[in-house]
Amino acid sequence: MLRPAxxxxxxxxxEFKKTVDEIRNLTTGDEFTNDDWLEFKELFNYVLIKMGxxxxxxxxxxxxxxxRKEVERIDTNLKFIEHEKxxxxxxxxxxxxxxxxxxxxxxxxLEQPEIDVYHPAHxxxxxxxxxxxxxxIYGYYLPRxxxxxxxxxxxxxxxxxxxxxxxxxxxxxxGRIQDIETIFxxxxxxxxxxxxxxxxxxxxxxMSYKATYSxxxxxxxxxxxxxxxxxxxxIRTYGQHPKLWVNTWNHMMSESDxxxxxxxxxxxxxxxxxxxxxxxxxxxxxxxxxxxxxYLKQSP
Length: 300
What we know:
By secondary structure, the protein is α+β, with helices and mostly antiparallel strands. The chain folds into two domains: about 5-75, no CATH class; about 95-295, no CATH class. The chain is about 30% helix and about 25% strand. The protein has eight helices and 14 strands. The strands form three sheets. A six-stranded mixed β-sheet has the order 8-5-4-3-2-13. Strands 1, 9, 10, 11 and 12 form a five-stranded mixed β-sheet that branches.
């Protein structure tokens, strides 16, 4: 990982920022064409040089083809979209401390493979952000419900084949190498019981992040598909905390354990939760600033 000072210096480099914007603007279409790929390589080589890395010219034709597949996967994950809805979150009457206290009753027990947590991966959880909504969330009305938005931050995600290039690509695109995944928990206010966990796409004003449900995928699957799902039946719970498993190398989750791997348990309610939705999480983690509003295209 590059030191924060280096990242901050690049954030002030106007030419670097301009190049990154051009790279990100290549995702405006519905497909990543050969012309887009050629332009991407030229721009990305500039980014690599600015970061002190070898250019893509060092890769074999096979490696370059595999890397293009990963670039296309990242581009699809951060796709600029037509702004169809502009929901504004209802005014929050609870204090941040009250929201965190409610969230502590419902955030998951999360199992992550030890090979991803310990040396040499060091991809454990660094922070968890929560935002609690009282019946209204981004324009949707769920009477007598709390809706808890949970954004989990991992120190990194390691690509099984091209991790160094993958990190550079993600840092250039997202302004971070940390991985962030968001889920929603719906709870009954009357008896404070968990009702469901929703894995949904999260939208900002001009971009979207895919949902985080793994389905039946396992650890070494490439590429990983991001599924949307709403889970109402849990194999395991701890009180009102649903038990979830990280099933893929890029931290897609489900209610079942798909891998014969030793797991490290995270009781998320013990991780000093911070207040904030996905947009705030991005703005505290990324070297870029994301403006606009956050919304969903369906109710959790």
